[in-house]
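User: structure tokens for FAD-binding domain-containing protein, please.
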Amino acid sequence: MSKPILIAGGGLASLLFARSLSRAKIPFLVFERDASIVFRAQGYRLRLSAAGLDAIESVLGPEAFQNFYARCGKTGGAGLAFLDPLTGKTLSEKPAGGPGSEPLASRDGKVVGISRGDMRALFLEGLEDRVRWSHQVKSYELTGEGVRAVFADGTKSEEGSMLVGGEGVNSKISKQLSGGRIKVYDLGSRGIHGQAPTTAFKGLGEGVFLMNDDKSHPEGKVFLITNVRPEEMNDPNVEFGWTLGGSPGVIQAPNDDFSIIGKPAADIAKSLTASWSERIKPLLDNMVESEAAFWKITCSSPEGVPEWPNEPRVTLLGDAVHAMTPAGGNGANTALRDSALLGRLIVEAGGYKEGITEAYEKEMRVYASQAVKESYGQAYKQFGARDIDSSTPTL
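Assistant: Done. Predicted tokens:
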């Protein structure tokens, strides 16, 4: 029996990659630090680009993809509307997919999105028996004929044919494999994610809405972005999400603890938007306070994914190799592209073969470096993110 492919991390990219292996009946094991899929909040809703949808479809196949696509929300309408948060007036609109528009629409002229939690659960279906929960990978060791994952408690996995590090921005596999060449920078901008019942969004209408407040805070600006999907507006079981962000210095957390969730985060979001229009205030006033959560805006170097000596049995995907800001929605979609590419190369080879990781990394560096550059550029423009230089803090 062939050795399994070991996967560190049980996030979206890792699970989509695992599905490629599962369809081809290539053995694998996933090691996830959390105790279960519901261990922590799943985060905000993701907007899927054309490339992201293509990657998912190539992995799932036609029938399973149609089931997945049916679970996604689709927004048409105005596409992207810019609002003045102080007056509530619409400043301008750009149709989704129209001339000069933001690249929001991905299929059928629609903006397509799905929550992280829903997507993760869909990717996990049928793979449950190959996921090892409460296993945090801290390093790896090469053997004569393979590789083992080393866990935080000092124990080791069975020998695998290769190891894929997909455990996010704090990946230990990334640091070991790249010799510290891969760095994730703290751009100084901060944000709060929140959710509210659909009734709070009725004053906005359909579309993706962006609001910038550069008048209320002398330290900088505050922005909010949200997506209102009409087909779910009257469903009492649905909550829409929004993301509030601020340029460096605007959003301060108690004791600089940006991992706090719930009411402390909700209260800060409400205080930052106290002067906003009654058209927008319901999103904050009616938020589900327990769902509020801070986040930091981080990014890999906009100079691109660095080179490191290729190790045939170990590679990386997703945020572990190219962390991105939320600007433009590039991060998750690029990670899904990684999953599809690496999965295809392994499936075509019938399992692990020397040369696969080198071929994958060569192609991945090209599109991922461009995506990181675009993501950083948009964050610099939209959020006032700090310059990256030798003094910029890293994670």
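User: Anything notable?

Assistant: Residues 96-102 have pLDDT under 50 and may be disordered.
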